């Protein structure tokens, strides 16, 4: 619940937020003039921070990077991501949380689900006990409507079959889609107040990730991305990251491919940096998940001995290696020109050679 607040002197107003974990968070305009939320002070039960209207744009970039050491108590930081729709006001108001679709969809095709994947999903269930889980496999899917899906089944290219299931289930049922090799760090309920938005993150600074995607049932943008698969050339095999990234670049008003946090209330889109769902964050507990890129989509990995490779090295070593890998990916990416233009504040479209 968010409650409008005005102090007894009457010279400032703000918002008092009560999070689902019981934290009382006062957010007032005092810090807004400084332009840097990192100056906020953190206590056991309250935070003095920036005005709600600017938390959305600078909270992760400024406070998350420069002052993450301040936010180590009771996952307060993730809860603050949710306080984004209200502005300071005089008088009282309330805002109920939107209803999140508490379903998790994942896929395994080409054989029996490996023990490593079962163990990983068991950990998801431990963190999200109030969610329903759906495994989509050879026995319970129907993609006959899509040439791309039939082609994937014919050629046993299971990763591309997943690329149809992802938007199809998100659009028709809603919930989270999660790749089988994703390590979940924090419970998904922390995103509950964004339950009416499409929630997605970057994989690299210049490409969207699809290992973790949330959508309410019937979100129009997911429906439009699903329709893109009717336009795929017969000889083309576009990966889902390209389908999503191309669509956002060419069809989502106001979107800039710059790797940063972006929220669009009108279109109900909530986009997070790459360290939120895909890449290791500097502090492991700062992100929601890590995509380990174990190659579960490769045909040769459909056997029952497949393992989700989390590695044996320290988290900091993984962070360094993945930082190097993502930098190389950025430099080599087809999206680099669009990324540069976006960083300069310029709009840019691009051709999609995989489409009719």
Overall mean pLDDT score? 75
CATH class of the largest domain: Alpha Beta
Proportion in β-strands: 15-25%
Widest sheet: strand ordering: 7-6-8-11-10-13-12
Which segments are poorly predicted (pLDDT under 50) over 5 or more consecutive residues?
1-95
CATH topology of the largest domain: Spore Coat Polysaccharide Biosynthesis Protein SpsA, Chain A
Architecture (CATH level 2) name of the largest domain: Alpha-Beta Complex
**Ends distance:** 47 Å
Helix content: 25-40%
Protein described:
The structure is a single chain. By secondary structure, the protein is an alpha/beta fold. It folds into 2 domains: 2-81, no CATH class; 103-343, Spore Coat Polysaccharide Biosynthesis Protein SpsA, Chain A (Alpha-Beta Complex). The chain is 30% helix and 18% strand. The protein contains 10 helices and 14 strands. It has helices at 52-66, 76-81, 115-127, 147-154, 158-172, 220-228, 240-251, 274-277, 315-332, 336-343, and strands at residues 2-6, 13-18, 24-27, 41-42, 47-49, 103-107, 132-136, 175-178, 182-184, 198-204, 207-215, 262-264, 269-272, 289-291. Strands 7-6-8-11-10-13-12 form a 7-stranded mixed sheet. Strands 1-2-3-5-4 form a 5-stranded mixed sheet, with no helix packed on it. Strand 4 (41-42) and strand 5 form a beta hairpin. Helix 4 (147-154) packs antiparallel against helix 5 and helix 5 runs antiparallel to helix 6. The longest helix has 18 residues, at 315-332. It is globular and about 45 Å long.
């Amino acid at each position: 619940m968010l409650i409008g607040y005005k102090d007894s002197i009457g010279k400032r107003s703000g918002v008092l937020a009560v999070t689902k974990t019981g934290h009382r968070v006062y957010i007032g305009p005092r810090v807004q003039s400084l332009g840097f939320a990192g100056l906020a002070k953190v206590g056991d039960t309250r935070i003095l921070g920036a005005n709600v209207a600017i938390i959305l744009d600078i909270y992760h970039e400024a406070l998350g990077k420069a002052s993450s050491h301040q936010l180590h108590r009771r996952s307060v930081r993730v809860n603050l991501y949710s306080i984004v729709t209200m502005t300071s006001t005089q008088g009282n108001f309330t805002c109920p949380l939107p209803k999140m679709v508490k379903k998790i969809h994942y896929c395994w095709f080409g054989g029996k689900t490996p023990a490593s994947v079962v163990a990983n999903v068991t950990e998801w269930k431990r963190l999200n006990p109030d969610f329903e889980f759906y495994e989509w496999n050879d026995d319970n899917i129907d993609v006959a409507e899509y040439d791309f899906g039939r082609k994937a089944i014919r050629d046993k290219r299971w990763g591309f079959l997943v690329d149809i299931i992802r938007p199809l289930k998100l659009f028709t049922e809603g919930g989270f889609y999660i790749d089988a090799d994703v390590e979940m760090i924090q419970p998904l309920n922390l995103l509950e107040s964004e339950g009416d938005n499409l929630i997605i993150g970057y994989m690299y600074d210049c490409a969207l990730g699809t290992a973790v995607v949330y959508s309410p049932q019937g979100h129009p943008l997911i429906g439009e991305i699903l329709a893109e698969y009717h336009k795929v050339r017969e000889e083309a095999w576009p990966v889902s990251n390209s389908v999503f990234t191309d669509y956002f670049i060419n069809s989502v008003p106001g979107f800039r491919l710059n790797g940063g946090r972006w929220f669009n209330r009108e279109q109900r889109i909530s986009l997070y940096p790459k360290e939120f769902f895909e890449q290791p964050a500097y502090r492991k507990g700062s992100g929601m998940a890590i995509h380990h890129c174990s190659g579960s989509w490769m045909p040769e990995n459909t056997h029952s001995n497949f393992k989700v490779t989390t590695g044996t090295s320290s988290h900091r070593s993984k962070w360094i290696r993945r930082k190097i890998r993502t930098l190389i990916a950025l430099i080599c990416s087809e999206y680099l020109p669009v990324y540069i233009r976006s960083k300069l504040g310029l709009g840019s479209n691009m051709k999609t050679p995989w489409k009719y």
